[in-house]
Amino acid sequence: MKYNEISHFSHPEHRLTYDYTQVPFLCDGCNEPGIGSHYKCATCNHDLHVHCALPSPSISHPFYTKCTFQFLTTPPGSAPRYCNACQKDISGFVYHCKACGFDLHPCCAKLPTMLDDGEVKLYLRRKVGSACHKCGKKGRSWSYRSTCRKYNLHVACAKEMLAESWHEMYYRGVRIGEDGDYSNSMYGQNWKLEKGTLQSYHQRGPKRKGKIKKCCKIAGLAVQFVISAILGDPTTLIAGVVGALMSK
Q: Is there a contact between 17 and 42 (Cβ–Cβ < 8 Å)?
């Protein structure tokens, strides 16, 4: 077996090879989208987030100090379950706390507590007192908050922005060139629409026009990094790829 290959219980037919892609994929473990580093079967097009391909048998999380989360391949029980981080349905691999009943998607469980590209720092919070810049509401899910505490983005809202664009590309068969060009795709257009939504949100407030440009620049960088983290690869390079998709 090569150093970059693994055998995985979800796909015993073939070995999975470590790969890197700038094209989003659907993870066959947790059934959530991904980008960047992952493991794949070239023969069967079987893809796994790194977190899903190499899960920990059990984990703890700073937001739930009394919990021990066990890795499960399917959600426990017959009732629908949702992720306590992003509030989205769970339909595949999951970290589950039997004592408390909490559930986390593998990528949500491994979300970085801080995202930093040298210009913008965002801190993961279980609850924040101010409104999300996407939906304008408080609560709902975990959030990333800027150092100045003036910018907040729900993990749930970031996933919704991602899902809308993902649906266009994955289900409507958007064509992507071999060089990774998204310039003619509806995927890129949707990213632009959502970034405009953030700008429109700032414009609704009185006497804020002078701060709109700077605030929206921070918002755009924040969206890039939060979505990159949710996709399972919170690196500057992947954030740049997401930013390119947003700017098309």
A: yes
Give pLDDT < 50 ranges for the chain: 1, 170-213, 241, 245-248
Three-class secondary structure of residue 53 per DSSP? helix
CB 128 within 8 A of CB 152: yes
Give, in order, the Cα–Cα distances in Å from 136 to each of 13, 45, 161, 200.
47, 39, 14, 12
What token pair was written down for 82? 């949702």
Indicate yes or no: pTM above 0.90: no
**Closest-CA residue to 67 (of 93, 94, 102):** 102
DSSP assignment letter at 89: B
Alpha-carbon gap, residue 93 to 99, rounded angstroms:
18
Residue 6, pLDDT score: 95
Integer Cα distance of 176 and 61 in angstroms: 38
